[in-house]
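Weekly puzzle thread! Below is a chain. First person to post its structure in token form gets bragging rights.
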Amino acid sequence: MVWFLGGTAVLCLLYYIIIVIYSGVSTSFALIWPCLAIFLGLLAAGWWFGSQHEGRIPVWIGVSVGTVCAAGFLILVITEVLIGWSAITATGQPADYVIVLGARVRGTKISNSLKQRLDRAIEYSEEYPNTVLVLSGGKGPGEEISEARAMYEYLQYNGIPEDKLLIEDQSSDTVQNIEFSRTVIDRQEYNKAQAARAHLMEFYRERPDGDTIGCGSALYYALKALDKNAAVLCSDPVPSRYAFTNARLFKGEFEPQTVVAVDVASVQLFGENNGVPQYSRHVDLCIDHHAGNSGYADFTLLDGGAAAAAELLYEVICAMGVDLTSHMADCLYTGLATDTGCFRFSSTTANTHLTAAKLIEAGCHVEELNTLLFDTKSRERMEAERIARNHLEYYLDGRCALIYLTRDEIEQSRVDPADLEELTGLPVSIEGVKVGLTLRQQPGGSYRISVRTAKGVDACAIARRLGGGGHARAAGCELLGNLENAKNAILAEVEAELDAPQEEA
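Winning reply:
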């Protein structure tokens, strides 16, 4: 018996060593094997000692040890029978949720044991596609990301939809796995119940820029993650360079109960082509960063100090309890980068950079986005720039530079409207220029004027006097009449601003 117990203890210890080599030391459940090895070793030693000292060991000790061993063995047998019986009698009905427990992650790479577990989860998900997988596991020693995040990326790569995955990344043991996963499931069920009949529509403004589109798309996917029925309404077509945001456009397929506007400072900016003006006249919530917001919505979430609406919306999505996906991060980064000139404008703050860093941590594809947004220029865009440079004019002793494009020239170049926005920074980039003006003729004949200024000159003050608005360094307005009238009107306001006492920015 001594040899049997000792040999079994050695086998348990060897099995534990194999598990550690295969899965890593963080596999806490495997500790049962060295514990069992120690117990069997002590039992073997006790048996040997008893055989060497017969009659000297009280009978009650042997009886007690035997009872404990018999009880343990009986519990083990009963447990295994119950597990087997559950497997035999299982109905085969799909579960609403399946908790997938984490295991060792080496840096960012999953262990072999975790891979096998996830492969089985993939099989289950393919068999029952409506089941939601709850990925449970925090970040342990030697792990660069949480076990839950590593599992999420593996399952996403293998085609499991993100709406069928929930992340629980705070647990550190099996008890917490179950407890915290339950909390995540309860929150998901609550959100589903709240959203059962919720229909939301988001508004883009006319001529939407990267911040508008990025925010609207990120909010759309955040709402979808909460099982809300959402869509986006935009007066103008989404520019092709932002097609990757891929938000669902509103086609009138449902009656919106809640209308949300993003990055829209006034009702006038909604445009006249949205087809459903009744919604633009009743906006429930506006999320914006323009200090001059007119307050047209029932509720306004405004941060005039934010460099972009995306900076504010990032906090909103986090507060919603939504796990930020890499696609949401791409959309929000687009808003941040385009509204700050790739973080070159004076509106960029420390919090702007911190937000960008968090988006990068969430999987934002920074290099690809920067190439798409700032380094890639279409031939049509280059043709429009060539035409605009031919119209370059200087005023006010070289302190003001102006370029313009007529409607015929815009149509001739066939440039995407979004690319025209990039031209607005050309005049102010010239040495010695304090105010840069870009005039673009609209289909109705009016001129849309973009004002860009150097440090110490208030662009918003210039535009505001002509019915426009914006930021301290970037603003705009629209003027009726011919080109000369538009020039004279805007140049008069520029001169007044330049000749006024300037404050240091």
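Puzzle host: Confirmed. Bonus trivia for everyone else. The mean pLDDT is 83.
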